[in-house]
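#struct-pred
JK: can someone run the complex with FE2/S2 (inorganic) cluster? inputs below
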Amino acid sequence: GETVTVSLTVNGEPRQLQVTPNVVLLDALRDDLRLTGTKKGCDHGQCGACTVHVDGKAVNSCLRLAVMCEGRHVTTVEGLARDGQLHPVQRAFLEHDAYQCGYCTPGQMMSAAALLEDERIAADDASVREAMSGNLCRCGAYKNILEAIQDARR
Ligand code: FES
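RT: done, structure tokens with the ligand placed:
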């Protein structure tokens, strides 16, 4: 079908997408920009594997049309580390072995990084678990993920 040009910022760089109007951000990032760190799990907004930041907010990129991202700032897991320094969440996930197969990890880290910036989320474990409930882990690494996030938060 007919393609549309979408201008946006991805990981701090101005980028352009040529997409048909039905293409979701997830597929545009992976297929057009070759940013394959963002994973496709369910493709239906249920698993969180595809989580990226749009204007600093964690969103499921499988539910977001690429054409809706004109002028937006998108950050993917590839942009989480800055100036050669791992993000505190990345460091904590490493330290706490907060993954097994690793497939859900980019999405987990993007949600966790957004959580760290959100002062409305209380410090207790239950609040963090609730805030992370959109990110599923088939391996059940939830305990270590929670520990990593709590560590990164301190
Ligand atoms: Fe988007 Fe599962 S792939 S929520």
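RT: quick notes.
DSSP finds five helices and five strands in the chain.
The mean pLDDT is 97.
JK: thanks, will look after standup
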